[in-house]
Amino acid sequence: MTTDFANVMMSETKAGETPIAFPAKLLGMSMLLTLSVVIWMGGNSVHIHHFLTHAMSQDQHVAEQADDILYLDSVLSQYARTGGNTGDADFDRRYHDALRHDLDTKIDKLPPDLRDVANAASQANDHIAQLEARYRNLMEQNKLKDALALLNGSDYRKDSETHLDGRRKLSEKVRHASQQNLLNLESNIYTTLSLAAIAIVALCITWYFALKSIRQWRSELESARIRLTQRIAEKERLEKQMREYLEQVQMAQQDAMAAKEIAEKANAAKSDFLANMSHEIRTPMNAVLGMAGLLTDTELNHEQRGWIDIIRKSGEGLLDIINDILDFSKIEAGKLKLEPIPFNMGETMMEIGDMISLRMQEKELEFIIHIAPDLPLDVVGDSVRLRQIIINLISNAIKFTENGYVALRARWKEEPEQHIRLYFEVEDTGIGIPPNKLDHIFDKFAQAEESTTRRFGGTGLGLTICHKLVEMMEGSIDVVSTPGKGSVFRFNVQLKLGKKLESQVPAVDLAGLRALVMDSTLLNCEILVEYFEAWHMRCDICTTAQEAIELLEQGAQNKDPYSFALLDYRIGEDKTMQLAEGIKTSSLKLDPTLLMITSLNRVITSKSLLENGFSGLFVKPFLPSQLKAALQILWDARQHNKKLPLVTRHKAMQMLRPHSKSTGISADMFPGVNVLVVEDMKVNLLLITRILEKHGCVVHSADNGLKGVQKMLESRFDIVFMDCQMPEMDGFEATRRIRKEEVAQQPTPIIALTADAMTGDREKCLMAGMNDYLNKPFKPEQITQMLRKWLGKQS
Fold it and tell me: Could you give the angle at which helices 649-656 and 345-362 cross, rounded to 10 degrees?
């Protein structure tokens, strides 16, 4: 297979598999080793051949020289014995010297070991020749005996033996040198062959592993090819399935689009139905509640007022159910949006307290507000939705509590970017919730038991709405409960810090002052102690009038008198007033500033309190800021000998927020203001006309949008209240036509009157050219707010 195909195989390996790699390093090492061995063996072969040639040449040369030396030695020996054959002594002498020179030259060319042997043999031969020459001379002189003695002498024999031994040694040395060369050559050959064998074994091992790796690579390559083939087949199969799936998806999308259109039509029908239901129910409900409110301003006997109260409560109960259903529908449709505005948390808490106090008193429950003394009151958020959450939780607590108390607690924590997180708790001493129902308590239409619905009523949507609203305000909600002992609903929301308003409360330092609290409820005492300690005041508590007088007298005796005494009216009117009288008539000249603490169901006149020495009246529930402001006002007046009317929580709130607007309605608030009311329902038209007339307005009316447009063309009005759903021409179209006619003049403020809670009421009204809107049923105070907002007048 080619390398490109191998690379394709490698790229197609699965994640987690070892990549298929050609054993290039091992093969390259094997080839390099083979090349090295071949080069080495070739070099050794050349070396051995050269060595063998040299050895053979050297052996031949040495042998030739040895033969020449032996020949020359024999010739010299023979020549010395014969004395020459020419008869020319000078020639014979020169010839003998030439032979001797050749012999010496040959001997000098021999290796040193052969050279010594040849020299010794040559010298012995020369000596023998001399002795034989003497022998011939003696024989010529007929000295046979001396000649024989010379030949048989030891010198001759010794020289002969030396000569023969030299020739023999020379031959042996030559033969030995030749053999040694052959041995050296054999050793080199053996060494070379051994190394060659080792190299061949290494080559075999290397090539074995190289070929094994190549076979493994080829096997893996073949496996990869098979896998690739399988994957190609699988890919083709998946592509086929994908095409089929896309066709199914396309068909499903078409079905979904058709279903979506059907669902949108159904949702639009649902929204239209809810809007129509809202309009058809809330519009007459607005008339019922509005007329009931107007009737309360007329002369009625006790029984008639009771009937009006039943009408009002029943209508508000039905309105609460309608509001829950509509709010839940808004949330499910994703059309409920928060509207953050600056508001005062203290005012909101007091409004909540005022709204539910009567219900608390009807069931003889105590309502306790316990908030952190340093809680920031000026914040930015959706006060309407926050109030809705708290009222819903408190209403549930009241509904399921027969005796005891309902407590609202609030604390806070600072967060980045000028935000704070408020933590609320609504605690009751009611029936509690079974543990197996806690996980589903925030589900829609869920209540603890079916019998609960039959006994206490309700839609089961209130807690679901609370849960959704809390999540929209970037918070969370949960509950802990003990059956038979009560429940605690806890939630937190994120708000933004608002601009703190200026206060007219005297900047009096209360640190070190001493206060006495007499209250029959220990929880109230603990809350007040916490407030006083936060202001660095000293506080003692008691539960009876007798304990109170004893503590006051003890403080006077110890020259550490109490500066303030807060007395609970529930101890008993007679006992509380007797205590106040006892304080005034005490021989120890007790002089604490007295404040009465009471509930709304207790009727106490200001005159009675002032006559009995009380300087303040605080109706529960109240805020720590209100109490602190009252103490500062009273202490400042005492220090400067000022006479003040009875200080109440409302007086303290006015001092804390001097720029807050009054909610009272009077005929001099908007005198002579021309108002056009366009409303098709006569009852509602009568209701809003009466409310506007109470503000001093001059009211004109039209019963449909077309007549309203004609009225606007005929006269100039300061403000218009426009119903949205009317025959002939609705309020949206009427507003658009009015705006077209107002191109060259100042636009008239148009306030929508709508009972539509599902169709994006605010956005729809603004898009039509309206300035603001009111949801039916509305209250007189909301009309007042709209007049102030758009006309800028107030009493």
Answer: 170
Strand residue runs (E) in 500-605:
514-518, 538-542, 564-568, 593-598
| Rounded alpha-carbon distances, angstroms, from residue 172 to 113, 168, 187, 662, 767 | 11, 6, 22, 151, 137
Residue type (1 letter), 109: K
Half-sphere exposure of 758 (CA within 13 A, CB side): 22
d(CA 149, CA 13): 111
CB neighbourhood size of 663 (10 A)? 9
Q: At what angle do helices 573-585 and 545-557 cross, to 10 degrees?
A: 20
Dihedral angle computed from the Cα positions of residues 732, 734, 735 and 736, in that order, rounded to the nearest 10 degrees: 90
State the Cα torsion 560-565-571-577 to the nearest 10°: 100
Residues 6+ apart with CB under 8 A from 564: 513, 514, 515, 516, 592, 593, 594, 595, 631, 634
* 675 three-class SS: strand
Distance CA 385, CA 9 (A): 66
Q: For strands 647-648 and 674-678, give the pairing.
A: unpaired
Phi-psi region of 509 (alpha: psi -120 to 50; beta: other; left: phi over 0): beta
Tokens representing 581?
């009288």
User: What averages of pLDDT result for each successive group of 10 residues across the chain (795 residues)?
Assistant: 48 51 76 82 77 72 69 67 61 69 69 69 69 70 72 69 68 70 75 81 82 83 87 90 89 87 74 64 70 69 68 68 67 74 86 76 83 90 88 89 91 91 94 85 61 50 85 92 92 91 84 91 89 94 89 90 88 72 80 82 67 85 89 91 84 73 64 89 79 85 91 91 88 92 87 70 83 82 88 59
In the chain, what's the furthest Cα-to-Cα distance?
Answer: 209
Identify the DSSP state of 416: T
Chain segment 525-553, per-residue pLDDT in tens: 899 999 999 999 999 999 888 888 899 99
Contact 710, 693 (CB under 8 A): no
Q: Which of 646, 638, 551 is nearest to 596 (CA)?
A: 646
CA 766 – CA 735 distance, rounded (Å): 10
